[in-house]
């Protein structure tokens, strides 16, 4: 691999099965961070350089669009 940087992906989903699926598909090629809460995703965004954010839109307590608005404020 010419470029040795592993891209970092943050996945936010309230369903553990989806996060497990992301893990099985992506972890061999990418650095994958997973979370089930918007608060933890926001913390991860502030503390890591994220190249791609996979966001569930329908979650209990918060809609993904609200999380997206918070992401825009951070980066």
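^ Assign residues to that structure.
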């Amino acid at each position: 691999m010419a470029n040795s940087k592993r891209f970092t992906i943050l996945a936010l989903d309230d369903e553990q099965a989806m996060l497990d699926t992301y893990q099985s598909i992506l972890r061999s090629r990418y650095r994958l961070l997973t979370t089930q809460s918007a608060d933890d995703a926001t913390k991860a965004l502030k503390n890591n350089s994220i190249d791609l954010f996979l966001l569930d839109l329908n979650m209990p307590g918060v809609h993904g669009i609200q999380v997206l608005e918070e992401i825009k404020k951070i980066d």
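The chain has a mean pLDDT of 89.
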